């Protein structure tokens, strides 16, 4: 692929003290120089969420931009995507342009995402980052419909020491089927889907290659903590969900048409703010970057080995 010269340095502006940056002055439909992608990766490490304004991206251009970062995830679900299997349509509008009723399971499915979560946490290797492009957005004066983000590094650091010690050895169970438990009107998973994404568990405390720690949890793919009695674990889960919702960790993004928002699924949670789905049309297109390895916790062998041998990065 021909690489564009970097003629203009994009402008990066912090959006919120907790997380998020806005990036202007770059056209993502053009091929990127590898240095530019490296700079975006660094910015995502720093800010957790990047909003590229004023983009005009066809589906193929969004896929091409995403592929320059790394491997894309395929979606395990049947009948949730149109065209490429690496594209996920987050919309209350059908592929034919029909505004779907709130009873349609494709719309109900989005309500599952109104709870804090990190994408693909139900996989053994969860996603690295998600890229969501605003095609049809709500008017500026509409209420709701923002996407909330919460910084899990800050949330972890703010926990009291006794709670940090308590959760250090624990894992959380993540299950794609959990949404079906909460919304009984959703169609059951097919046998294909059940086998594609069986329940998994991940450490509740995630240790990153640079040594940072963060909470790694979900409210839409589970509420069970392994390693403790069921009800005690669910109470701890409720406490942590309340904790990550604290305003000082959060940024709520109000969408403009042409925004491409990229978030780091390793260090942030997100959720869809409720809105009047019967009144407003909303169409987003998501591509997702696959994770680069399983979630490592304080007791994971790789982390322990790294700690014993500091020269190993
Ligand atoms: Fe999501």
UniProtKB/TrEMBL annotation:
The keyword Cytoplasm does not apply. SUPFAM superfamilies: Clavaminate synthase-like. It comes from the Bacteria. One of its GO terms (molecular function) is dioxygenase activity. The keyword Oxidoreductase applies. Residues 13-287 form the TauD/TfdA-like domain. Its EC number is 1.14.11.-. Pfam families: TauD (PF02668). Keywords: Dioxygenase, Iron, Metal-binding, Oxidoreductase. Belongs to the TfdA dioxygenase family. This is TauD/TfdA family dioxygenase. It comes from Variovorax dokdonensis.
